[in-house]
C-alpha cells in the first residue's frame, strides 16, 4: 500500500496550487481519503476528506471555500485544489487513506507529504 503526494512548492499569497496523491497497492475506490497538514511546531491539522465515490466531501473551517478535494477513481488519485492561499497555509501536506468507504477520519495509511510554502 502506497500513497505518493506531489504538487507542492512555493507560491505567493493569493495564489493557487493543486496537490495530487497517487495511490497503489489496494482497491483505491473502496476507501475514503483525506488530506492532513502539519505546520512547523504545530500539531497535525485535518484539512479535507472525500468519500470513496467522490460525492461527499468535508472541510476544516480554516479552508472551507478556498480548498476543494476531489478524486479520480480511474486514475487512483486524490486531489486538493488550494486557492487564495495565505502564509498560514504553509505546512507539509499529507495524503491519508481512511479505513472505510465513508468519511471516518480513521486513517491507516499515510504518504510522506509534500511541502507547501506561501510567501512573498
Nearest-integer average pLDDT? 97
How many beta-strand elements? 11
Indicate the structural class. Answer: mainly beta
Shape: globular
Which bin fits the share of residues in helices? under 10%
Euclidean distance between termini CA atoms: 37 Å
> Count of helices?
0
Uncertain ranges? none
Order of helices and strands: EEEEEEEEEEE
Beta fraction: over 45%
What about the largest sheet?
A: 7 strands, mixed
What is the CA-based Rg, rounded? 13 Å
List the SSEs and their pairings.
Elements: E1 2-6, E2 9-11, E3 17-24, E4 33-38, E5 44-50, E6 57-59, E7 67-72, E8 77-82, E9 91-98, E10 107-110, E11 114-118
Parallel strand pairs: 2-11
Antiparallel strand pairs: 1-3, 3-8, 4-5, 4-9, 5-6, 7-8, 9-10, 9-11
Structure in a nutshell:
The chain is mainly β and 120 residues long. The chain contains no helices and 11 strands.
Structure keywords:
120 residues, mainly beta, 7-stranded mixed sheet, 4-stranded antiparallel sheet
Amino acid at each position: 500500500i502506497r500513497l505518493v503526494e506531489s504538487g507542492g512548492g512555493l507560491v505567493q499569497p493569493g495564489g493557487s496550487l493543486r496537490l495530487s496523491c497517487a495511490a497503489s497497492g489496494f482497491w483505491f475506490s473502496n476507501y475514503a481519503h483525506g488530506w492532513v497538514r502539519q505546520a512547523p511546531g504545530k500539531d497535525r491539522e485535518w484539512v479535507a476528506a472525500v468519500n470513496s465515490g467522490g460525492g461527499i466531501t468535508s472541510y476544516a473551517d480554516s479552508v472551507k471555500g478556498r480548498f476543494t478535494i476531489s478524486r479520480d477513481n480511474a486514475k487512483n488519485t486524490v486531489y486538493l485544489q488550494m486557492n487564495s492561499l495565505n502564509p498560514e497555509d504553509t505546512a507539509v501536506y499529507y495524503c491519508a487513506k481512511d479505513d472505510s468507504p465513508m468519511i471516518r477520519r480513521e486513517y491507516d495509511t499515510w504518504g510522506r507529504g509534500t511541502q507547501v510554502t506561501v510567501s512573498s
